[in-house]
Design brief:
CATH superfamily of chain A: P-loop containing nucleotide triphosphate hydrolases
Radius of gyration of chain A: 17 Å
Number of helices of chain A: 7
Distance between the termini of chain B: 34 Å
CATH class of chain A: Alpha Beta
Strand order of the largest sheet of chain B: 2-3-8-5-7-6
Number of strands of chain B: 10
Oligomer: heterodimer
Number of domains of chain A: 1
Shape of chain B: elongated
Distance between the termini of chain A: 23 Å
Structural class of chain A: alpha/beta
Mean pLDDT of chain B: 87
Helix content of chain B: 40-55%
Shape of chain A: globular
Largest sheet of chain B: 6 strands, mixed, barrel
């Protein structure tokens, strides 16, 4: 369960700061499949960065499974990110000179998992996303949908509690986007991992169980049930 | 909670970091190769300097090996209105009168035209006594050296290259040949083996004709000794003994000049030290420039790989992990340059040895030193790029194009 209590975020000097988030409070239970929607500039990316411990709120608390996430130390934040959160990005962010399995195994490197073990787990995760036959391909040799599957496998390989996906289908055509969404949902159900998706695509958001809508730094609606 | 200073990263093993670094460097191999050049030249000049320095020192010692390092040469510089001579009997009596002297031999040098059959040459002429051969360790190619009984006789010993000069087809210079010096015909009794002129030789014996000192006045204007070669006993105090020898030989006709083998070795070593310092300076400057090159390449790498850095940070690389990654990359890059430099430096030293006809000898410590120094330079110059990488904001870095 991820909880945000009165989370605010401002940029700039204290006297003329710009407020991007205002006292956002919500909770996402474990296993949820949830979308955060809003137009660009609404503050949804900042919200996701705070949920992903990449950014610190100016005020308020982030609590993960009852534990307050204090990220005053970059090292501690990195460790928590590594163990609890998987990231999926719009532009995949795969390292082009590594093979698919090496990309997937990367988060395990920062846990000092031995190479053999890393490979085993990466191959297993590539199997989960249906890419067992592409493990030794490098990203430039893969299609957009395949790349996003590799990225998804990378996000999942460390058995995180939550996946944060930033416009995960934004670089894909609609057919491939549908396949990737189906995979997200499938993994959410099969592995029980929480999925939080940030998007401005209302159609995509509509297929999620819950939609939190952000506008001008505030939550304007929080709707459950598939639309 | 942890401070930013302790090793609180996730402990990626060094081997993995090096493997990663090699992969990254290979991915940008052209640029890596350029950065290597400076480091390579720096390491090469340091390796070459140390290797050549050691070989030169061994060669210097070798020069004195035949003759020993306890040699003195006393040379008479003419005083005003005098010829500048040293008394022969005093020289020959030195071994008896001065306890630290093992042996002493007088000699006089001049030049003269020497004719053998139809050929002739202008050669060094050296008047000696029998004592010189054991003193200088002269080897005979054939025949014998001047003996005590030869004093006053018309006999000569010819240096190896002088013999070659005077030989004509069908009439080689050998024991029994005759050579004419001025108006006198000398019978050759021996030919010297090849002799490398060493620092204390009063003249190049290899290209000289050697005659007995008694009766040398026939062909030399000043047949009295102008030089005394002295060998001290092992362990003698060179300075004190030298002073006593000078005192014994002093006479009003000459200002005596003393050169000891140790003085020459000292001078040679001082020269070598200057060369070494020069080469070290060149090596250090090359390493410095190479280091700046490494820093440049690493900084470019950090800028170009911002997205990668952001991604690694997002998925759990601590700032320390990122620092380690770039530091190891810089050190690996420089180390590879150092290994290349080691090979290049050894090749240069080998070529120098071949050209100078020295025996090649490798001081083993340069093998780890060259690449080690280079890696150190890489580490030092990698610090700034590594810090830069670790201080990138992951959010900004992920957004970079």
């Amino acid at each position: 369960m991820l909880q945000l209590f009165d989370v605010s975020k401002s940029y700039g000097p204290a006297d003329r700061s710009t407020r991007v988030l205002s006292e956002v409070t919500f909770a996402i239970p474990a296993g949820a499949f949830c979308a955060i929607v809003g137009p660009s500039g609404s503050g949804k990316s900042t919200l996701m960065n705070i949920m992903g411990l990449l950014d610190r709120p100016t005020a308020g608390r982030v609590v993960l499974d009852g534990e307050p996430m204090d990220i005053s130390s970059p090292d501690e934040a990195a460790r928590v990110r590594n163990r609890t959160i998987g990231f999926v990005f719009q532009s995949f962010h795969l390292l082009p000179r590594l093979t698919a399995w090496e990309n997937v195994a990367l988060p395990l490197l920062y846990r000092a998992t031995p190479r053999g073990e890393r490979k085993t787990q990466a191959l297993e995760m590539l199997d989960q996303v249906g890419l067992s036959d592409r493990v030794d391909h490098r990203p430039p040799e893969l299609s957009g949908g395949q790349r996003q599957r590799v990225a998804l496998a990378r996000a999942l390989v460390g058995r995180p509690k939550m996946i944060l996906a930033d416009e995960p289908t934004g670089s894909l055509d609609s057919v491939t986007a549908g396949e990737v969404m189906a995979l997200f949902r499938d993994l959410n159900q099969r592995l029980g991992v929480t999925v939080v998706m940030v998007t401005h695509d209302r159609e995509l958001a509509a297929s999620c169980e819950r939609r939190i809508e952000v506008l001008d730094g505030r939550i304007v609606s929080d709707v459950a049930g598939v639309a | 909670m942890t401070t930013g200073l302790d090793r609180s990263g996730s402990g990626v093993p060094l081997g993995e970091l090096v493997a990663e670094a090699l992969g990254n460097l290979y991915a940008q191999r052209q640029r890596s190769a350029l950065a290597l050049l400076g480091i390579m030249i720096g390491a090469a000049s340091i390796v070459a300097m140390l290797t050549i320095g050691q070989m030169a020192q061994l060669e210097t010692l070798k020069l004195f090996k035949a003759m020993g390092v306890n040699m003195l040469q006393i040379h008479a510089m003419p005083a005003p209105n005098a010829y500048g001579i040293i008394d022969r009997r005093t020289i020959e009596g030195l071994a008896a009168s001065e306890p630290s002297v093992e042996a002493a031999a007088p000699l006089t040098t001049d030049r003269s035209s020497v004719v053998a059959g139809k050929t002739g040459a202008d050669l060094g002429l050296v008047a000696v006594t029998a004592a010189l051969q054991p003193l200088m360790g002269l080897q005979m190619e054939q025949g014998r050296f001047i003996k005590a009984v030869d004093d006053g006789n018309l006999v000569a010993v010819v240096g190896a290259s002088a013999a070659q000069t005077l030989s004509t087809p069908g009439a080689p210079i050998a024991a029994g040949s005759q050579v004419r010096i001025k108006d006198y015909v000398y019978t050759v009794v021996g030919v010297l083996g090849p002799h490398v002129q060493n620092a204390l030789d009063p003249t190049d014996l290899d290209s000289a004709v050697i005659i007995p000192m008694g009766g040398a006045g026939r062909v030399m204007p000043a047949p009295e000794p102008s030089t005394a070669m002295v060998r001290l006993r092992a362990g003698a105090d060179v300075k004190a003994a030298g002073a006593r020898v000078l005192k014994a030989l002093a006479n009003p006709t000459a200002t005596l000049q003393l050169v000891s083998a140790q003085d020459i070795i000292k001078t040679l070593n001082a020269q070598k030290a200057i060369h070494s310092r020069l080469l070290t300076a060149i090596g250090a400057i090359s390493l410095l420039v190479g280091g700046i090159g490494v820093m440049n390449v690493m900084l470019m790498g950090v800028m170009e790989r911002r997205r990668e850095i952001g991604l690694r940070a997002a998925i759990g690389a601590t700032p320390r992990d990122l620092q380690a990654m770039f530091l190891i990359e810089a050190a690996t890059l420089a180390f590879v340059g150092g290994v290349a430099g080691l090979l290049l430096g050894l090749f240069a030293a080998f070529a120098t040895a071949a050209v100078s006809r020295w025996s090649f000898s490798l001081p083993l410590y340069v093998v780890p030193l060259g690449p080690g120094l280079a890696a150190l330079v890489g580490l030092v110059f990698g610090v700034y790029p590594a810090l830069k990488a670790s201080r990138l904001d992951p959010i900004e870095a992920l957004r970079a194009e």
